[in-house]
Amino acid sequence: MESDRRDYFRVTDTAYLSAVPFDSNKPAIEDYFPELHQIAVMREFERVNQEYYDFLDRVKDAAVRKLMGLFNEKLELMTRYLHISDIKDLRLDAQRIDIGEGGCSGVFAQAFAVGDELALAVIFTPSYVSLFCRARVVQVTEDADGKRLHLEFRHLAEAQRQALTRHMFKVQAQSRMQ
């Protein structure tokens, strides 16, 4: 259903990509990338962060709001530092990718064929928002960077789809400001 994949809103962004063949006996995608577990925690951090901002909106005292904002900013910086350290240790290279709610395309070192089911890790930079999901190879093309895989997301949870959409709107808004 590649045409369905292309019907979604798409952006060009920068991300770290990692993929391995999917095994139906190992359904938890995060288990395929134990070296990226710390980055996977970002998903939980994002949920707590959203609750934090919802709560912060109800705080009336300006000094308390400012103090809470500074503490949150400090935590976000510490979290990013840890992720940068992890990425450096893993020697992952960021690349430009095209991504939408239906799938993405990027260059992979491994050789995959059309129809292959993959466990996929997408870690956006510099935000370190992460997406761990199943994907299916729908097309393989050759470009200057190597073999570009065009992937269709499979069984993306609604929470993942919403987080991805929020991220894409942020990317689009940032690109309009530049």
Topology:
Layout: H1 2-6, E1 10-21, H2 37-56, H3 62-90, E2 95-100, E3 103-107, E4 117-124, E5 130-143, E6 146-154, H4 158-177
Antiparallel strand pairs: 1-2, 1-4, 2-3, 3-6, 4-5, 5-6
Helix pairs in contact: 2-3
CATH architecture: Beta Barrel
Strand elements, count: 6
Strand content: 25-35%
Indicate how many domains the architecture comprises. 1
Radius of gyration: 18 Å
- Biggest sheet strand order reads 1-2-3-6-5-4
Low-confidence stretches: none
Output the CATH homologous superfamily. predicted glycosyltransferase like domains
SSE order, as H and E?
HEHHEEEEEH
Helical proportion? 40-55%
**Count of helices?**
4
The chain-level mean pLDDT equals: 84
CATH fold annotation? Thrombin, subunit H
Sheet of most strands: 6 strands, antiparallel, barrel
In CATH's first tier, which class applies?
A: Mainly Beta
Distance between the termini: 34 Å
Q: What is the 3D shape?
A: elongated
Structural class based on helices, strands and sheet pairing: alpha+beta
Task: Describe this protein's structure.
With 178 residues, the chain is α+β, with helices and mostly antiparallel strands. The protein has one domain: Thrombin, subunit H. Helices cover 42% and strands 30% of the residues. It is built from four helices and six strands. A six-stranded antiparallel beta barrel has the order 1-2-3-6-5-4. Helix 2 packs antiparallel against helix 3. 24% of the residues are buried. The model has no long low-confidence stretch (mean pLDDT 84).
